[in-house]
Design goal:
Length: about 210
């Protein structure tokens, strides 16, 4: 049992650790919201989306997603368009408006919608979860498979909670407001870089 838990923990952490669109958004919301409680909607939504993806992967949906090329193409096409658009929106946010605009415009509803978007419209993350976690789970059955799934899900929840807390700490330390504009630029570059990476992968699959 310990081996199964460690496998799920290490695998999930390895997938979620790289700096991606979802991670940057959670961190940013932790930094710009006036209170940590205001960032909880995005933290919970991101964790729930990961829970959904992990559950679907382990239940076997990954086999269907990875088998049909047209599903992969649709995921990539929508994902690329979304990342390019959000990259421009993020890059153009003016530094002087950063905290006020983020805190005011990212209502609970908008946080949830955007968190769902960066979680489920990022085909790279979806395919990684489906392919890696889904494939790895095939070696387990019964109780071991359930424990493996729970370990992966717990890692996801702890990670996003930690990101929100880290963002909150960074926001409180950055009294000058210079860090958040830099984070915006980094976020935009990551989005565009991911879009290019996905585009290359899409062209290679044609």
């Amino acid at each position: 049992m310990i081996g199964v838990i460690l496998h799920g923990f290490i695998l999930a952490l390895g997938l979620i650790l790289p700096l991606g669109v979802q991670n940057v958004f959670v961190f940013n919301q932790g930094a710009v919201q006036p209170r940590f409680a205001k960032a909880l909607p995005v933290i919970i939504t991101a964790a729930l989306c990961d829970t959904l993806l992990i559950s679907l992967a382990i239940l076997g949906v990954s086999v269907i997603v990875l088998e049909y090329d047209w599903i992969r193409m649709v995921l990539f096409t929508f994902g690329i368009g979304f990342l390019v658009y959000m990259g421009f929106v993020t890059w153009k946010t003016k530094p002087s408006e950063q905290q006020q605009e983020a805190a005011r415009s990212f209502t609970t509803k908008k946080q949830i919608v955007f968190a769902i978007s960066v979680s489920l419209l990022n085909p790279h993350a979806v395919l990684d979860t489906m392919g890696v976690i889904g494939t790895s789970s095939l070696q387990y059955s019964g109780t071991d498979k359930a424990i493996f799934a729970i370990a992966c899900i717990i890692v996801s929840w702890l990670w996003f909670l930690g990101l929100g807390i880290a963002g909150r700490s960074a926001g409180r330390l950055d009294s000058s407001g210079k860090l958040l504009p830099v984070m915006n630029k980094i976020s935009a570059l990551i989005m565009w870089g991911t879009a290019v990476y996905l585009g290359v992968g899409l062209m290679g699959g044609l």
